[in-house]
Amino acid sequence: MSLKTVCVPVASFSALQLVFVAVWLSFCSGCVSRSESDVVVYSALDEDFAAPILAAFERSTENEVGVIGKFDIESTKTVGLANQLIAEADAPRCDLFWNNEIMHTVRLQKLGILEPHDWQVPSTWPQDMVASDGTWCGFAARARVLLVNTDMLPDADARPNRVNELADPKWAQNCAMARPLFGTTATHFAVLRDIMGREKTLELLQSIHSNAVVLSGNKQVAQAVSAGKVAWGLTDTDDAIIEEELGYPVEIIYPDQQPEQPGTLRIPNTLAILKDAPHPVAAGKLADFLMTPEIEDRLAMGRSSQLPISKESKFPPAVLPSEPVRWMRVDFEAAAEDWDAWAKTLADLFAN
Hints:
Layout: H1 15-27, E1 39-43, H2 47-60, E2 67-71, H3 77-87, E3 96-99, H4 103-110, E4 114-115, E5 137-149, E6 175-178, H5 183-196, H6 198-211, E7 213-215, H7 218-226, E8 232-236, H8 237-245, E9 250-253, E10 266-274, H9 280-290, H10 293-301, H11 332-335, H12 339-349
Helix pairs in contact: 3-4, 5-6, 7-8
């Protein structure tokens, strides 16, 4: 797919106008005119995964609707794209936000810059996967799992099976977690704060900070486990499955599966149409195209092995175990309350 971008002619512009054009072009690359039928997508999902699917949408409309995609390659891309959408709220450039991490989608919802949509999902869709006001919908999730080095822990009965074992002294400096300031780890502990309460969650995080090896991201955690630098770690299924498929001696464990335990957290991709989007009709058509079992199957078959939400999905991803998984019951909107203050508290705690 050759993603379209905006080209602005600069001939005969004043110096001040050229400054404006330079700023605008920092958002764009290439030079393809934008038609009224184009839909602009900001995608936190990696371009390798999202672009072929967006190209399939263009083909499905017989090129009557084009797609202009903005992808961010930074490690904190979700934060960056969300902040850009906030900055553009008074004059949106984006029509549809495809986020691969839900918490900042909820942040945009609470700021009132998303538009409700009639999501074409069945009544059986999990309640925690649809916004209470219809402004976003979740699909194709990743799960928060434990990755264990089986050479270091050959006895299956001795392996961890709970997230809070990151704070257990028996695993001191032999387990790992990503710094909970961005991405799915930040979402995970925001969810636990809603379930356990603020003080208990902070106590757990303080214990983890003292006990576990804290790394920059989930990929680094998975790699530390596969390399034998630590015996196990908390990471995402998309990072864990890579190490397994590369042939390292690792096993993926879905944590907290006993009846008295909270279950495994899954974090979906989300779609959201921007309030006052330039092309809301085209955005709605693209949203409906993406929110289907067929697209979930494509994401399940890809390298990230994402977990379909639809019961009509026909392709079980390689990362999913053969036995049923108990999923954590989540209220993402409650978990996002007071986000800025909570994020500052965690930044102070994990500053070193």
